[in-house]
Each structure stands twice: as C-alpha cells, then as structure tokens.
Design a protein that fits this description.
Structural class of chain B: mainly beta
Helix content of chain B: under 10%
Radius of gyration of chain A: 13 Å
Order of helices and strands of chain B: EEEEEEEEEEE
Structural class of chain A: mainly beta
Strand content of chain B: over 45%
Number of strands of chain B: 11
Number of strands of chain A: 11
Number of helices of chain A: 0
Oligomer: heterodimer
Largest sheet of chain B: 6 strands, mixed
C-alpha cells in the first residue's frame, strides 16, 4: 500500500482564493481525520469521518472550512475564502477505526501559505 | 491549556548521548501513543502503551507508561543523528476538546536534534 496520499504537497495562494486539499486514505481504513499543524498550536483535529460519514466537525475553525468524503477512497478539505491565518500544514490521517485504539497513519501533509 | 504537556520543548545533544523526554497530563488515559515526525513528513507511530507501568522497547528507544496512566516517558540510549525529529505523544480523551472527544489528541512535541 502506498500509504495515505495527500495533494498538493505545497500550495501558495492569495487571500480570498479558494483552496482544496485532497486525501486518499489507506484502503480498508474506516476512519479518516483532517489535522492542522502550526508551531503555536501543534496538531489540532479539524474533522473526522467514520465510514465516509462526518462524525464531528467541531474542530473546524470557521464556516470557511468544509470537508467531504464522497467515497471510501477520497476526501477533500476546502477553505473558501482563504486568509493568511490559515497558513499551516494540513495533514490527513486514516485508521482502522476512530477512538485511538489503532495507530493513525498520516500523509505527508500539504503546506499551505496564504499571502 | 494543553491536555498533554511535553518537555522539554527543544533538545540538542551530541551523538552517543542518552536522553529522556516526557509527556504529562492531569487526566488518566486508557492508552498512549508515541509518534516521530521528520521534517516535511507526517507523524509515524512508534509505539502504543496500554497498561499502567508498562515498559516497551524498540531498539534503543524505551517507552514507559506511568503507573497511574497519566504520564509517559521516552528514553533514547546512545542517540544517533537519525533520531533527529519531533517526538509527539498522543492519547484519547473523553473530554470535549474541540472535535477530539473520543479521538487522539497530541502534545506539541519535543524537537530533538542529534549532532554528529
């Protein structure tokens, strides 16, 4: 298995533009997580899906953020409109189940810079 | 307030030295995990500890879960430059901590640099 695949690896965009981050989880993993990492706040959980269904999005910072998982092999995180304070590394992770019983496998992340 | 406090934040040592990093909380956890993150990559799971007092070894790395399951330590013997990275502890919280209830929350990590 190629692991969790995220694209793009780097994204530089202007304030106000729409940004879409993509994730392909490991086949057979039922849970998918979107995290954001910054120096100040570390890794923060934004939203997670279980069997393609969003379970808890209370970590999403604002209505400008939205996430979808149309099928078991694809998820997107969208920011519209983007702002400079959204600059961070965004990670997607997948796991056999939520609840932390199993390890999470992370992708390599998308480094987002909003100028 | 961080639910998981890691110390030290930064550690720079010479190759061959030993070191210990800590993960502390006021909460009791059913299990705790350690991850290592290298620059430009996502965290990679090293170990899961479940039982209070449990000790697990992974080559030169020794992980311990506190008896009360509120804290954990990671000891590295004879550190090598390849050990350089960000070491993160993570645990499942029953608290409503953002969207993390029932899922893994992470400490901010210890950034380790091992110089040759």
């Amino acid at each position: 298995d190629a692991g969790v695949i995220q694209s793009p690896r780097h994204e530089v965009t202007e304030m106000g533009q729409e940004v879409t981050l993509r994730c392909k989880p490991i086949s057979g993993h039922n849970s998918l997580f979107w995290y954001r990492q910054t120096m100040m706040r570390g890794l923060e959980l934004l939203i997670y899906f279980n069997n393609n269904v969003p379970i808890d999005d209370s970590g999403m910072p604002e209505d400008r953020f939205s996430a979808k998982m149309p099928n078991a092999s694809f998820s997107t995180l969208k920011i519209q409109p983007s702002e400079p304070r959204d600059s961070a590394v965004y990670f997607c992770a997948s796991s056999l189940a939520h609840g932390g019983r199993y390890g999470y496998t992370f992708g390599s992340g998308t480094r987002l810079t909003v100028v | 307030t961080q639910l998981l406090e890691q110390s030290p934040q930064f550690l720079s040592i010479q190759e061959g030295e030993n070191l210990t990093v800590y993960c502390n909380s006021s909460s009791v956890f059913s299990s705790l995990q350690w991850y290592r993150q290298e620059p430009g990559e996502g965290p990679v799971l090293l170990v899961t500890v479940v039982t209070g007092g449990e000790v697990k070894k992974l080559k030169r790395l020794t992980f311990q879960f506190g008896d009360a399951r509120k804290d954990s330590s990671l000891h590295i013997t004879a550190a090598q430059p390849g050990d350089t990275g960000l070491y993160l502890c993570a645990a499942v919280t029953s608290m409503n901590y953002g969207g993390s209830q029932g899922n893994l929350i992470f400490g901010k990590g210890t950034k380790l640099s091992v110089k040759p």
